[in-house]
Known about the structure:
Its EC number is 3.2.2.31. It is an enzyme of class 3 (hydrolase). By secondary structure, the protein is of the alpha+beta class. The protein is built from 15 helices and 7 strands. A hairpin with a 3-residue loop joins strand 5 and strand 6 (303-313). The chain is elongated and about 75 Å long. The structure holds a DNA duplex.
Amino acid sequence: MKNTDIKKLTQWYDQNKRSMPWRDTGNPYxxxxxxxxxxxxxxxxxxxxxxxxxxxxxxxxxxANCDDDRLMRLWEGxxxxxxxxxxxxxxxxxxxxxxxKLPKDxxxxxxxxxxxxxxxxxxxxxxxxxxxxxxxxxxLRVLTRxxxxxxxxxxxxVKEMIEEKLNDFYSPKQLNPNYASFNQGIMELxxxxxxxxxxxxxxxxxxxxxxxxxxxxxxxxxxxxSSLKDRKILARTLFIIRDDQxxxxxxxxxxxxxxxxxxxxxVDAHLTKSEMISHVxxxxxxxxxxxTLPEAKHIFTHLEWHMRAYEIKVAEIQHTLDEHYxxxxxxxxxxxxxxxxxxxxxxxxxxxx
DNA sequence: AAAGCGGGGAG
DNA sequence: CTCCCAGCTTT
Length: 353
């Protein structure tokens, strides 16, 4: 990138950056936490969660000592829950080996749990102003347009091409560079001006003079993204087994989809009412009254759940199932981390808020 | 290299 | 409804 554009970009950022709860606090923990939360997640969704999280776990030490259920509760609704587990794992590692601090080194950051090439570059540049690339989806979009790269943005080689183009900037030849403003500037540009879906506000862009896509009217064809494969559809039947006080809940396995989160028990099939009754009886329950609840669909990136649900009232709930099943009253239920997939049913009972 | 992993906004 | 967005780990 031309030196004049680098200067325009960093100046544009310093003058136009939006205020964020984690921005310019001078605390590397804030950069780390926000960058992990912002992976695959929109800024507006992150803001309230970030504030609540910081309030509960203000530093790396408190994160390292946080109870797992509490951690999941703080992450509830953000998705990709392994991010939270890796966050804690990393905090424990930092307390043990790095004096509770994030290392000021791109290569060392990159090998920490949950921190990959992008996040390592973001922490290195934003928290410590070190010369390191931080190539996220925004950077990929802005720079494929700027350089006129028409290849499939999903291919790893496109990221490598961008990295190659940026190499000069991250070498020490540059005079007094502001790596934090440069990296954040490209991302901020991607979020506010160089937006996806063919509606970028190129007239306002500080890079428009040398932008290939703008100069050649190609902003709706760049970046090119190949289409995704079809999602698998999984039929589910949920059992909301309850008495007047309590509900039966199930804690999902600690690995895999929605790991360690709570749900209403169920099976991976659509059961008819009579099949459902024999299943529930085989679990040791005697239905007193059965209500068919509305069906619900939940879409994951790679999977769709098509859910049926029955409310099964029993006289006095007790169970002899394994340790992954719990009885929770309404109040306890509100303190458990239950993913959005079940929102229709948790809302049904006004169990939240 | 490909698959697994959530959730929400726009149209 | 359909389409879009997208970083890290595991396989």
